[in-house]
Amino acid sequence: MNRLRLEIEPWRDAMLKVSGVLDETVGGKTVDLNDQHNRRRTLYGTIQRRDPNKMLQVNDFPDPTAHCPARAETITPLQMLFTLNGPLLEAQAANLARRILREAAQDSARQITLAYRLLFQRMPTDQERKLGLRFLAGHENGLPLYTQALLGSNEFLYLD
Predict the structure, then answer these.
(1) pTM as predicted
(2) Residue 26 Ramachandran class (φ > 0 left, ψ -120 to 50 alpha, else beta)
(3) pLDDT value, residue 84
(4) Which domain holds residue 138?
(5) Cα–Cα distance for residue pair 18/120, rounded to 1 Å
(6) What average pLDDT does this structure show over 20-45?
(7) Cβ 142 vs Cβ 114: under 8 Å
(8) Structural Rg of the chain based on CA atoms
(9) Which runs of consecutive H residues, i.e. helices, occur in the chain?
(10) Which of 15, 61, 57 is nearest to 38 (CA)?
(11) Which of 72, 111, 126, 160 is 20 to 30 A distant from 134 in Cα terms?
């Protein structure tokens, strides 16, 4: 079975969900996707035909002014830069880190286990746990960086 990469809409929604901030209200007005307080599903994002959202454009969103029977799937350096430096991932990594701290306190091993359970619905392997513990021990306040790496990982972005 071929791996399937999530499109930007379900990927963004999944980040909001695991971070514990997704607003699942059905219906209502659209909200600008650049608004940092926007916790609504991406489906409710405002789309401007003449000024497309940069986050959507970088992640293969089709041109809203043209007929598009299927999305072209690309892998570009800009997508990885978005994952490393984009405000969406930074904000959701911080939200996820806060959630993990609330639920797993200051126990790094429990934090890693919870992160894997939330993001991947599985326990971390011994190797993943050791790497995570080493990373967190080497970085003061490193949990947001760690969660950002997990949110940008192929395991979170692709369906098997």
Answers:
(1) 0.82
(2) beta
(3) 66
(4) 87-159
(5) 10
(6) 88
(7) no
(8) 17
(9) 8-19, 54-58, 77-85, 87-104, 108-120, 126-138, 143-151, 154-157
(10) 15
(11) 160
